[in-house]
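With this grant's support, we have settled on a layout for protein records. A representative record follows, to show the layout.
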Amino acid sequence: MTRTLPAVTVGVSTKMYFSYERSLAYARSVAEIAAEHPAVQSGAVEVFVIPTYPALAETVRILERTPVRVGAQDIATADSGAFTGEVSGAVLAEIGCTLAEVGHAERRRLFGETDLVTRDKTQAALRNGLTPVLCIGERMPGSTDAAVDECVDQLTSALAGTPEGSDLVVAYEPHWAIGAPDPAPAWHIVEVCRGLRAHLASDQRLASFRVIYGGSAGPGLLGQLGTAVDGLFLGRYAHDPAALATVIDEAAALAAVRAGSPA
C-alpha cells in the first residue's frame, strides 16, 4: 500500500554557492549536527544534502557514518555513452549517492529542460536505485486549485513508466517563490501539498513518498505548515549550519506531533 514515510524530511541544496572547500566544511558541520541530534539519530527526522558535483564523493565519505543521505543536483537521462559533460545515475549510485534532484525550475528556465527531459531523468534515477527529488510547481501565482492541477500534470508526466515499489520525494516549489524574499503564503502551501499528497496516495506504484516544500523556505516555516507537509527543501537559508540546526529542531517537533506524542 502506498504510504508517506513517518519521518519529517529536511533537505538542503547548496546550488553553486559554495567552493569545493566550503562544501566539505559544510558537510562536516552537518555531520556534527546529525551526530548530536537525537531525532536524526532515531530516524524521526530524515536529512539529505545535495552539494556541488565535484564535492559529491568526499561529502559521501564525510557523512557515511551518519544517517544523512547525499544526492546530486542533476542526473543524465542515459546511463552511459557519448554524452560529454553529463553524469549518469550509475556513477552517482557507485559513489554512494542515494538521491538525484530533477525538474528544478532553474533547470527548466536556464537550460530549457522540458517535461519530457524531467520524465527521462526521473526514470534514470529510479532505474539506478536513486530516489528522485522531483521538483514541481506552478509558474505563476493563482488559485490553489489551479496550482494543484498544474502540479499533478507535471507529476503524471514525470512518473510515466515508473516501476512498482518506487520511492519518491516531491519538492513542491512554486516557480514564483524561488529566490523571493519570502516563501509562498502558508495557506497556499498547505492546500496545494494536501492536494498533492492525496494524488500520490492513489498511485499504487509508489512504495513510499513525501511531499516537502521549497521556495525561499527557512526557519519558522514548518511551524506554520504543520502536518500538511512532510518537510522542507532548503536553499540559501540553510547554508548557515546554525539555521539548518534550527530547522531540524522544528522538524523534530513536527515529527513528534505526527507520531501522536507531545513535541
